[in-house]
Design brief:
Number of helices of chain B: 0
Shape of chain A: globular
Helix content of chain A: under 10%
Number of helices of chain A: 0
Shape of chain B: globular
Largest sheet of chain A: 7 strands, mixed
Radius of gyration of chain B: 14 Å
Oligomer: heterodimer
Distance between the termini of chain B: 41 Å
Largest interface: A-B, 29 and 30 residues
Order of helices and strands of chain B: EEEEEEEEEEEEE
Strand content of chain A: over 45%
Structural class of chain B: mainly beta
Largest sheet of chain B: 6 strands, mixed
Order of helices and strands of chain A: EEEEEEEEEEE
Radius of gyration of chain A: 13 Å
Strand content of chain B: over 45%
Number of strands of chain B: 13
Chain lengths: 116, 115
């Protein structure tokens, strides 16, 4: 596609429910990143995919968070048993030069999650 | 480990005034440095980047940044602010870690431009 597409753009859920956030990267981009943006906290790295593999999962905050990527394209971030502290904007980015230091990330507009 | 510090969560300037957004980084190896801008309700987009070579880097919309190794800084400047520059600005550093390059972002600086 022309850009990185994320859905839903907004999600309101009740504490304890599971949510899935989807990212459709730019066609041909092998690297995919998930970040979390909380008010005043900047961007917090969650996970990085190179193809369908996740060589770096170090940023996932807890075992309630998981992510997968299939076909080297679409990725899904799943949060189980959501908590109020999970409320944030979840950003997805893709890059054609995964693993390269000078790689430029193209970001989606984000999925805003609100946990009541 | 790498890290980024952006001084000032908010910077306010008058239209036509100099813009200076500060960024200091920490990295054990020569870093790659970036500035991204986020306009309201939009995704982050690249403003400029430093890889190697010339330490003064020019980006889009009249912005530029200078890599100063001795000061571990990569401050962003623009000679004359425009109302359309109002946005959130993020500095990022990318250095090898465990075989990958994962950009680490600062907390962001909100630029406010007054008429």
């Amino acid at each position: 596609g022309a850009g990185v597409s994320q859905s839903p753009s907004n999600k309101v859920t009740e504490k304890g429910k599971d949510v899935e956030l989807r990212c459709d990267p730019i066609s041909g981009h092998t690297a995919l990143y998930w970040y979390r943006q909380s008010l005043g906290q900047g961007l917090e790295f969650l996970i990085y995919f190179q193809g369908n593999s996740a060589p770096d999962k170090s940023g996932l905050p807890s075992d309630r968070f998981s992510a997968e990527r299939t076909g080297g394209s679409v990725s899904t971030l799943t949060i189980q048993r959501t908590q109020q502290e999970d409320s944030a904007v979840y950003l997805c980015a893709s890059s054609s030069q995964g693993g390269a230091g000078a790689n430029v990330l193209t970001f989606g507009a984000g999925s805003r999650l609100t946990v009541l | 480990a790498q890290s980024v510090t952006q001084l000032g969560s908010h910077v306010s300037v008058s239209e036509g005034a100099l813009v200076l957004l500060r960024c200091n980084y920490s990295s054990s190896v020569p870093p790659y440095l970036f500035w991204y801008v986020q306009y309201p309700n939009q995704g982050l987009q690249l403003l400029l980047k430093y890889t190697t070579g010339a330490t003064l880097v020019k980006g889009i919309n009249g912005f530029e940044a200078e890599f100063k190794k001795s000061e571990t800084s990569f401050h962003l400047t623009k000679p004359s602010a425009h109302m359309s520059d109002a946005a959130e600005y993020f500095c990022a550093v990318s250095a090898p870690s465990g075989g990958s390059y994962i950009p680490t972002f600062g907390r962001g600086t909100s630029l406010i431009v007054h008429p």
